Amino acid sequence: MLSTRFLSVLAILPIVLSSPVFTNLVLHEQRDDVPDGFVKSSAAPSDQVLNLRLGLVQGDMATLEQRLYAVSTPSSSQYGQHLSKEQVESYVKPAAETTSLVNEWLSANGLTATTISPAGDWLAVSMPVSKASSLFDAEFSVFTHQQTGKQTVRTLAYSIPSALSGHLDFVHPTITFENPFANLPVVFTPKSSPSSKRSKLASRAGPDSCSEVITPTCLQDLYGIPATPATQSTNGLGVSGFIDQFANEADLTTFLQNFRPDMPDNTTFFLAEIDDGENLQDPDDAGVEANLDTQFTIGVATGVNVSFISVGDDFQDGNLEGFLDIINFLLSVENQPQVLTTSYGQNENTISRNLAVNLCNAYMQLGARGTSILFASGDGGVSGSQQTNNCRTFVPTFPSGCPFMTSVGATDGTGPEVAASFSSGGFSNFFAQPSYQSSAVSTFLKNLGSTNSGKFNTSGRAFPDISAQGNNVEIVVGGEFGTVGGTSCASPIFASVFSLLNDELIAAGKPVLGFLNPFLYSTGADALTDITSGTNPGCRTNGFSAGTGWDPVTGLGTPNFAKLRTAVGL
């Protein structure tokens, strides 16, 4: 007869044997080299705590992508039938087995994770370097950015248990490096007084209102943007705020008094704060980027409800500086803004491919719910987010390479507009070219021939998609008038155009535009003014040239409001 103790052992044996073995590690992600500007300084202190983020393999993203295109393509029978919060989350939510398996692995190693995304596909967990090194078979080191002196702990490769392959998508931050110059605000050049009296300059021939600087009135004249106030209270435009850039309300009042005297000068923005964000109002705290984005959305999208979303430094997305947090915040609410503009980004080669795909999928989710997502393409021409000649091949920017958002380049001058030389554009090395732009891009590549052959990925997602004024734009900062330049100007300008179109669509009982690109590359293309001259040099080349049709400098072109109204069915 078997003893009671032996029977108990036999009873638990199947459970033990059925548990996965987490000791067999396989290489999961790696970098071939250290990003430009960084050097390896030393081994990371074994007791330094790493706040890691685990991206779980998401559910049925292929079907969600199909649904996104169905509701965003004008020729589709489902056009405009945007998905609900619950519908999107049902596609994104990881399989129950995935969540269970990852949590079992963490528990077996004495760790507990916290869910930090609405669909449960992101987990947060902390551990010392010593534990992370053994858990991921990784060599964590201190890397120093030579120009800024900023230090960060990263690894060039890491492994995960083979049992988690197909369940654990990535661990962050591991091989992703920050770009210290990626999110720098635009440069503000002060001047003594507003440009209320203008003398025509031949170099800026065009509407009289544009003869000296770019203001809301100039844009109304140049692009045919109406000055009549929007009427729909449900229509919203979100402005992303990062790196302690604060939008000053007193500066906004001064801006409106001088450049939109027809608007109430007490018009302001709504404020949303995440990650311990705030919006300090001392004149010395006024942010150039934040002021630019709020002044030119409120000043151009007359009457539209503008929200400034201030992202603080308590990041939940682990050294993504709130880039995912702001999207997760918007995905967590029922009534997100119909347009979101962001004037920040980084070089694609600084970020893990898996992480880039995950962030891109977050934009897919928000787009499926009916939000138009616009990002400035960057200010380095073909050399990335900032101008440099220290590159042998062209450097695409992120998230402009993501196919589920709209990238905005910049123009200069008004008679006629030409490509701004700093306007970043090119082809992604991570994301394949989407079908909505294949015809336009193939025409460009055919005309390009062998120029710059081998310096870019001809099969990658091409950007920018559209463009707008990006130079000599007048704003108010800390009570001073001055000018700024960059694609940071262009994104809020074009976002304002789409917000005004959305207002009219809502008033007419029609759905808002949502994800824009399938529309822009089809029925919307003829509603844009093609920019046919100018280049975006970098990497010791002249870069690409603007020409007839789409090009990787100004995209499909700049807005013509009257034609866009017709194109969207108004």
UniProtKB/TrEMBL annotation:
Catalytic reactions on record: Release of an N-terminal tripeptide from a polypeptide
Gene3D superfamilies for the chain: Peptidase S8/S53 domain
Coiled coil (residue ranges): none
Pfam families in the record: Peptidase_S8, Pro-kuma_activ
Active site as annotated: E289, D293, S488
Gene Ontology, cellular component aspect: extracellular region
Note on cofactor: Binds 1 Ca(2+) ion per subunit.
EC assignment: 3.4.14.10
Top-level lineage group: Eukaryota
Binding annotation for Ca(2+): D530, I531, G549, D551
Keywords on record: Calcium, Glycoprotein, Hydrolase, Metal-binding, Protease, Secreted, Serine protease, Signal, Virulence, Zymogen
Sequence ranges assigned to domain Peptidase S53 in this UniProt record: 213-570
Signal peptide: 1-18
Database matches in SUPFAM superfamilies: Protease propeptides/inhibitors, Subtilisin-like
Alphabetical GO biological process terms: proteolysis
Primary site of residence: secreted
Cofactor(s) this protein requires: Ca(2+)
PANTHER family assigned to the protein according to its UniProt record, in alphabetical order: PROTEASE S8 TRIPEPTIDYL PEPTIDASE I CLN2 (PTHR14218), TRIPEPTIDYL-PEPTIDASE 1 (PTHR14218:SF15)
Protein name: tripeptidyl-peptidase II
